[in-house]
Each structure stands twice: as structure tokens, then as C-alpha cells.
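Input:
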Amino acid sequence: MTVQIPQTYDDLQQKYQSFISRRDNDRHLNIFWETNPSKFNENNGQKFIELSGGMPHESFFPIDSMNLNILKEPVSQDTISVDITKEKPDKLPLLRTLQYALSEGFQPLIDFIMNFITKLNNIPLYDKSLWKIIIAGGSCDSLYKFFETCTDESTTVMVEELTFVPVISNIINTGAKVIPLRLNLDNSDEGIDLNYMESLLTNWSKGPYKHLNKPKFLYTIPTGQNPTGLTQSIEKRQKIYQLAQKFDFVILEDDPYGYLKFPKFNHKDPNSNIYKDGITSQEYIEKVLMKSYISMDTDGRVVRFETFSKIFAPGMRLSFIIMNKFFYDKFLKFQEISTRQPSGIGQQIVYSTIHSMAHSSNDNDVIEAWLQWIMKLAGNYTERRNVMLESLYKTQSYKQNLLDFVEPSAGMFVIIKIHFKGDNIIEQMNDLAKIMDNNGVRAILGYKMAVDQNFSHDNLNYFRLTYAYADNTAQIKEAIDRIDKSLVQYFAK
Amino acid sequence: MTVQIPQTYDDLQQKYQSFISRRDNDRHLNIFWETNPSKFNENNGQKFIELSGGMPHESFFPIDSMNLNILKEPVSQDTISVDITKEKPDKLPLLRTLQYALSEGFQPLIDFIMNFITKLNNIPLYDKSLWKIIIAGGSCDSLYKFFETCTDESTTVMVEELTFVPVISNIINTGAKVIPLRLNLDNSDEGIDLNYMESLLTNWSKGPYKHLNKPKFLYTIPTGQNPTGLTQSIEKRQKIYQLAQKFDFVILEDDPYGYLKFPKFNHKDPNSNIYKDGITSQEYIEKVLMKSYISMDTDGRVVRFETFSKIFAPGMRLSFIIMNKFFYDKFLKFQEISTRQPSGIGQQIVYSTIHSMAHSSNDNDVIEAWLQWIMKLAGNYTERRNVMLESLYKTQSYKQNLLDFVEPSAGMFVIIKIHFKGDNIIEQMNDLAKIMDNNGVRAILGYKMAVDQNFSHDNLNYFRLTYAYADNTAQIKEAIDRIDKSLVQYFAK
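Output:
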């Protein structure tokens, strides 16, 4: 096929209409209110009076003002005090965020996100008028709504063979089919197996899924993949994007962990941590962060999912999506019909917190302040990753070749592969998990995150560990000791 | 049919399985985490270590603590200061609400709601073990999810002929059919026309909708109906419940305005306001509030929708539903697959605010404090309602019989019916709306809230006004003056 850069909305519509679900085509929002501004002339000092919207007056809201104490940096005790009132901050005061609002999210928060992703170059290459940002209620909400908008019984979606399986529910529940892609679980060529993928697509009509339509979507977690912790190289991303153009599928880039990116583990100096060495935000952007799929996108075929859950707090239930304007319009229609606006108070707190971290309200200062927060966070994760890997290398189990593992360079997860004997892997995993539980440690049983246990038969023998939730690094060491003890016990039987 | 009070979950399942949508039956959540507590014995002082959940540690959340200034009563300047920290309030601290959480909502907030609705007797008559409360992200979210769970191409849903039409989108988008019920728009027998309804159901196979399946659901806003402001009498509710039993449909009671209930407008004393006269909460519950459908429910056939939007603030995006446990389980499954948990920080703020209004943490004190807030709010709405009605009675338009209206005794809305000449009502409504806009006032054009404009041909000639959003009562008077002026201008043409 010939690749064309979209120039107009019509180009997008023509190109992507076939990527919209049957259900979306039947979806219409009945509204009864007027959306045009009044033409009433207020110059004579008389105010236009609105008796339309069934909105409580702001004086009826019980929250008069709030004050946040925000951390100067993660884990710190130092705090900054932030006042939020019905008039302040002036671009997004409580008066607005406590009230009903538009389903796409508040414009001042969207403006911040736009500035931020532009600074990071996480923006498409086609014209800026043809893509948009929408705010949603957490990544689960984003993904659920996207699949409702775009997939149906006729759709095939490719996913990594081991993945965040709740998303599979979202896809399958629309009637769509999910097929697994082979993953390389080694440190030299991490992530989707390109040869497998290209061969599958090229020989579709002779392959194992020939009874299904050719795939319209690839769902991938390219950085710090869940559960494997793998990060796709730039070369791999470029080749996958070329495959997307050749075989005309859309890439759904789910990137909750992208900011938690670290250099490879340093065996000679396990404690090395560039974030503690004093890296600048420019170096972070240019040398540490991975190039996103959306930054390669000339065609409008990448949809990028981000969330505030991992870098702010999950309880905010806030996420956002960057996508071409045609997909955006369809998504927004569905958001209007279903949940309507994401939490107003959540948007308020995220906006106010980030802006209060900065020395001034200047856009660049705000971006820099948020980058500093994120880098400090990534520094903490680096330390935790280092401790977990160092501890794993020191275990009896590793030395006795009872396990091996993949060193993550992003995200929250490490998988440890257990060298079981025999073929009844699931039974053995369950037995080992019981011993671990008895020893006071728990991890995710890998086979539960396989899309197709038959397909992934050789990749079921792992546990997913996280270093995110431990109270401190001493607890990480203790946890690995307990896992080690459990493995030695298990294999001594 | 014989009516049986459900005794067990199996009874519910048997009775209501046919009320579940085709799509729900295909809906499954893939989870990979362990939900059973560990059996690890922590008695020896060793703590169980969780390496499963991909949750950021709480020390990584930027919000260390927050302080709310909450109003002592609506419109007041007096405030109470409320501290929320990672440890406080002890039943629901920030540590929990900033983190990932269960999709059904936080138990301490659910417990409060349970105590509150029990006090108000808004609970079913069948066994307490067979119904539950779930928290969702605002009433739109509640209703959207309920229809996704229960309706499909085979379902017919009855609704009031004039209604909150966005909900029609939710129903129709599942493939279900909506049919309008005749409304009485007079002060003596408000709301659904019982004769019409009973005749329709009794003669279904000979009626205008005989091509559709018999209705499985009635969606109704029984108190302060939107847009009409009508409130169904208790006798009407009892008869409709009997019809529901006879014709085996489920009643969806959407009650956002139920707490904003007032005595009838007093023509002799337009300023009379029982809330300012010093009514007790017990009198409010027993003499002012309407008996809800759910309080009559012996069978599990009422689903009650409430929201914090009208009595707290819309920007919280929090609502809840009371329903039988069988519907609950299906709804929860869908919530888990779609949006997952409602906003944690929203739940935090609602919980902390309400509990801080009370003199003590005693359950009864908390309920009483929240009732006092709500009654003060209802008092403000009563005053606004009074001012709007008194102003309407004084208009030239009313005296010249250009309009009449229904006196609301609940909620936020008044409809004014315009006595147009001729048959081109919609055209005339649009013309009049332009004149109103020129005069600096706007209201909702009634025909836009009709389910079926042909069916409601004689009920399209109204505007919906709200007294909720005006800055003060002076502005309400000014708005009615402008409407009056507009009508006189229009009919002078």
C-alpha cells in the first residue's frame, strides 16, 4: 500500500472509518441544551441569565477551599503548601472543578499535557490540527472505551503473549478476537519477536489464524512491559511501525511506565544511579527516555495511552490519550454517552499540585518542575530495581541455576523464570507459590498473565515480582531471601 | 403471576436471569492476582511481603496531606477546618484513597450510605443479605452501566414521555427500544398517567407497540421529575409497583432530586418555608420526603439510583445504586471490566466532609449532620422555588393567559407552557427562544426533551426553567421579567 500523510480531517475519516466498531456507528448522544454562546450584549452592564442547565449554584457546594501539602520530592518529609479556592488557581479554580464540566477534561490541564508531551517529543509528525488529547478516568477506562469505540466481532487484535490480561477482557467483550505475539525474553533482543510477527502477517492466509480477519490493531506495552519488564529497542519500534504501514494496522501504545526508565543494570557497580548523579532534564529526555511510537507517526495510526496512576497516584483515576482527531471524535462521543466527565476534583488536584511544584506559572517552569518530580521518582525506582537484581544475583537459587531472570530497564517488574523439571508447570508453580506464601512472600504466577497457555507453553514458568510496593529496599532484600529459601526448599523435596 | 419474596440468592437468580443482557453473558474479567488473604503467620513479628500488585508505594504520592475548609451550611461564610492525612481519618486515610482500590467503592463510605438510607427508610423490604450498595462515577455512569448490564435488542424500556433524554442514548445504544408513557401535567394528578399505562400493558398485543417485546423496565424520575418538576404521589407509586408485579417489570428509580423536597407552594404566603421555621430531621423524614419505590420493594424489582452531584458537588463524580445482589454482581463485574474504581480522592473528600460536619464520629451524629446540611439546602431551594413561582404569577403573560405552569414541590425545575396559536409549535418555540436570548435569558426548549415528538405533540409547547443556578433570588425575578417581556413582545407581533 502507499502511505499518505493525512492533510485533512477527510483524509483521516477515509483512512480510519473501517477501524470503527459496528456499535459506534449506532451510537448517538441525545442532548437538549444549547451549546452556542448567547448573542446577548452585556455592554450595558446587564448580565445574561442562564435558566437552562440543571446545575447547583456554587454557593451550595460544601467545599469552600482546600489546602494541599505536597511533597517537594518523593519520599521526602519537606512539603509545599498549596491553596485552592473558588477563585484560585485563576485558570482552574474550584468554582469550575466542583461543577459539571465538559467530557473531554478541563482545558487548562489539557494545555499542560500538550506542553509537556511536546517538550518530550511524544507527539505525532502529522499536522497538529489533526490530533488531540482527551482526559479519561484511568488507563482501564481509556482502554475499555477505546476498544468499545473501535473493535467488534470482525476485528482481530494482536497482543504480546504475556500481557496485562484485564485488557483482554475489554477486547473480547466487544466480540473481537485476540491473538498472541511471540516475545523474546532475553536481554539482547527484548520484546516482540519480529521474525515471528512479520512471518505471521506475511503468511496470514496460510497461518494458524487464517480463519480470522487480518489484524487491525496491535496492543503493546513497549517500555517496562507488564509482566515481563521488557523494553523494545528503537530499531524494533521502527520496524514494527513499518509493518503497521505495510499491513495497515493501528498501534495502541500503552505506556504507563515510560517515565520510569533507567540505564541497564551495572554489574560492576550495582548501586549506580544516574538520577542521583545529577542528570539534567534535557539529558533525561534525550538520553534516557525511549522514543515513543507516537513520535514516529506520520499516518495517524498510533494511539498513545498515558496515565497519572504511576507517577502521581492511582486514586486520582486520571489518564489521557493522544490520538488522531477522527478517533478522538468517536471516543469523545462514547465518553459523553457513558461516564461523561472524569473526576473534576481529581483534575483540580493534579493540575494544582503540578503547578505548585514550579517556581513560577511560566509554562517552561511548570514542565521543568514536573520533570524533576518524575526524575526523582525514576531515581527511586532505579535504586529499588538495583537492589532487587543484586539480591537475585546473590541467591543460592541463581547460583544453583534454579532460576534466571530478565534485567528490566524500565517500569516496576522483574520476572524470574524457574527451572522446573517435568511438564506439569502450572501444578509446580502452584506448589511453589504455597511454599512462598508459607515463607511470607507473594508474587504473581506468570501463567495467569498468558493470553493463550498453549501458545505460551514454554513461557509459563515465571513469577512476576514488583519492587514498586515494598516499604523500603531492606524489605526487597528480605523478600528475595524468602523467595530463595522457598526455591531451595521446593527443589530439595 | 404469583409474587414471591426472594429468600435466597438462587431465588434472585431464577427470577432475574432473564433481565440480564446478552452482552453481560459474554462478559468475563481476566484477573491474574490472588484475592485470598495469605495464611502467613505474622505472630513472630515478621511482616508478610507483597511483591504482587503493581502499585506505587505511598511514599511516592505527591500529596502528603490536605486540609478542607467546609461550609457550616450552604451559602454561609463560616467554615470548619478538616485535616486529611495519610493516617487520618482512621477509617479512610489518604494512604488508602490515593492507592488502587476495589471497584465497588470504599467500605467506610458504603457503610455511611447504608446507615443513611436505613435512617431514611430508603431500603427494600426483603432480606438485607440479598441487596447491596455500589458506588459509581456519577448518575450518568450508573445508568450507562446498568443498561449495558441489563438491556439488549430484545428489551423494551418504558420512560416518561418527557425525560432526561441523554439516558435514552444509553438505552438505545444497547439495541433496546424505548417507549414513552403519557404524563399528566397538572397539579392534581402529577406524573405518569396510570390509566394510559395500565391500558397499554393490559392490551399490549393489540397496542401500538405490539411488534415489541413486553417491557422489562420502567425508567422513572419520581420526585421533581426532569424536565417537568412533577412528583408522583404515594398512591401512584403503590399502583405502579403493583403493575410492576402484575406485568413483571423492574422499576429503575432515578432519584437525584428526592432530598430537595418542599411543601406545596402557598399562595396566601408565598414566602413560607418550613425549613426556615425550624423543622426537625425526624419531621423531614416522616412528613416531607416522599416514600421511595425501593421502600415498597418486596421482590427485588426496584433499582434505586442516587447521586452526590446535586447535594454535594457534581465535580466529585460520585453516585450510588441500591439493588438486589444478583443485579449487583452483574453490575460490579461490568464496573471491574470498564472504569474500575470510582475516583478515590472524590470518595475521600465526600467521606471526610460529611464526617467533619458532625459533632462526633458516632454514626447517628454523622447522619444527623448530613441531614442538617441537606435540609438547609432544601430550604434554599424552597426559597428559590417560591420566588420563581411568585414572579411567574405576577407576570403580564400569566395574567393575559399567554402561559401557565405546574408548581413543583421538589427538585430544580419549573416548566412554563406557552399558549401558542397554530400548529407549528417547534418553529414558534425557536422564534420565542431567539427573542428571549435577545432579552438576556435562556431556558431549555421543551420539545428537545421529548422521547417521541409525535407522541408528545400536545406537550411540546413548554420551556424548562431552573431556579438552581441563579446567583440569587433577585436574579430569578429579573429572569422572569425578561421572559415576561419576551412573551409580550412575541405575542404582540
